[in-house]
Fold this sequence. Notes:
By secondary structure, the chain is of the alpha/beta class. The protein has 2 domains: 2-120 and 304-322, Nucleotidyltransferase, domain 5, CATH 3.30.420; 130-302, Nucleotidyltransferase, domain 5 (2-Layer Sandwich). It contains 11 helices and 10 strands. The protein has helices spanning 36-39, 47-69, 88-105, 114-126, 164-174, 181-189, 214-225, 232-264, 281-293, 303-306, 310-322, and strands at 2-7, 12-21, 24-34, 78-84, 109-113, 132-137, 142-149, 152-158, 270-274, 297-299. It is globular, with a radius of gyration of 20 Å. The chain binds 5'-O-[(R)-(carboxyoxy)(hydroxy)phosphoryl]adenosine and zinc ion. 5'-O-[(R)-(carboxyoxy)(hydroxy)phosphoryl]adenosine binds next to helix 5 and helix 6.
Amino acid sequence: MNILGIETSCDETAVAVVADDDGRPVIRVNLVQSQLAEHAPYGGVVPEIAARAHLDHLDRLIRAALDEANLGFADLDGIAASAGPGLIGGLIVGTMAAKGIAWAAQKPFVAVNHLEAHALTARLTDGIEFPYLLLLISGGHSQLLACEGIGRYRQLGTTLDDAAGEAFDKSAKLLGLPQPGGPAIAAAAQRGDPRRFALPRPLQGREGCDLSFSGLKTAVRQAAGTVDPDDEQAVADLAAAVEFTICDHLADRTARAVRWFRDRYPRGTSLVAAGGVAANARLRTWLGALAEEHGLRFVVPPPALCTDNGAMIAWAGLERLLLGLADPLDAPVRPRWPLDPDATGPKVPR
Length: 350
Ligand code: KG4
Ligand code: ZN
């Protein structure tokens, strides 16, 4: 089976082909065109610019991916596209391209939930079985989810305000560091002392697995106001404190989720981290130790598959097609599309 995957939900235009080679998944090609340069002058992603950039890049990327995999449309067994959640303009560009190919080549179409694609990536890379606990932390999302099966997720916690990646990105801006902020803060933090600035740990002692970053942002703004931007050591020290505090908060909330998950899912085997923030080395070390302490395997897909990519969309499409879960060509895009339909928002699991 060869599945084409198209990702256009935010600011990466990405196309991949994933094949099922006798039950063994193979990423045949995985192309990502970042729009960082297009959005850089505005200090954040501009939805209209993103949609136009997807339109500019997508056809060429699809052509290049198929050429590289040495496939034509007729050789595909399905076309999957991110149909939400995300920026509506980009979602429309990607799904319309996918539907057009599916219609012309008479192949099944799959409307993939972008969050499910992040959630299933560890099955592509490490073949892990359900159920598992997922910490999904990106520029747009921060959630803890019990993954029970394809289409079956239980939300244990979500952010009350900003996403974890946003916390890194906004802090970097306050410190005069470049975007994306996560890698910039991590690099500066290596030369810094996290104890010089005392930042408050969010939701200290609070029940449940929800996350929050807005109070931290205020504290970083205040601390940054006392720092001379030319004082490299002070910037590094504050970056180290930011990284330490975000990782500490994520590890604390994940620890609560792990205990809950261990009680509810005795057959659960793994703790999985996904999304761009999972690329953070300090966080990986801490979560690895946490998983080990609770007898869970810790799985993090490689960085290129943690950040937005087409392979995860193709893989989610493949998993769904194997279960007969194709979608009609009038399937809508869904700018909001929670993985757990029963989750009304932040809540405390009992
Ligand atoms: O998953 P992703 O590529 O895109 C979204 O769907 O949002 O995540 C991007 C986010 C950005 O906020 C970026 O600053 C963060 O992931 N990030 C990191 C690291 N690498 C990327 N955050 C912390 N440490 C990193 N090494
Ligand atoms: Zn994402």
